[in-house]
Amino acid sequence: MRIMRTLMIIGAGDVARRALPELTRRWRVLALCRSNASAEALRRQGVTPILGDLDAPRALRRLAGLADDLLLTAPPRKSAARTCACASCCLRWQKVAGYHSV
């Protein structure tokens, strides 16, 4: 039996939600969300929601080690380095190599 890797989504807005049907077939998906309503919508799509906010980095420490990989679709913070630091705390073994704004 194949063990599914865990994917953390930060920025689970429209773009990420459109990918959820494919992602939930291949991953155990966690997603950071700000509201209970958003959490419930994600739950209905097979995602484990985690209430939190990128604007409260201290609260994000509890995310450390929860995921093997990360899908970051949140808009960049004032500092790209701070965005990478927040994202890196979510991963078990690796650090985010860089942040590229499109």
Question: What can be said about this structure in brief?
Answer:
The chain is built from 3 helices and 4 strands, in the order E-H-E-H-E-E-H.
Q: Give the N-terminus to C-terminus distance in angstroms.
A: 38 Å
Strand content: 15-25%
C-alpha Rg, in Å? Answer: 13 Å
Mean pLDDT: 79
The number of E-state strands comes to 4
Q: Could you give the order of strands across the largest sheet?
A: 3-2-1-4
Secondary-structure blueprint:
Elements (H helix, E strand, L loop, with lengths): L5 E5 L3 H13 L1 E6 L2 H9 L3 E4 L17 E4 L7 H9 L14
Parallel strand pairs: 1-2, 1-4, 2-3
Notes on the protein architecture:
The chain is of the alpha/beta class and about 100 residues long. The protein has three helices and four strands; from the N terminus they run E-H-E-H-E-E-H. Helix 1 (about 15-25) links the parallel strand 1 and strand 2 (about 30-35). The protein is globular. Residues about 90-100 have low confidence and may be disordered.
Keywords:
4 strands, four-stranded parallel sheet, alpha/beta, 3 helices, 102 residues, disordered C terminus
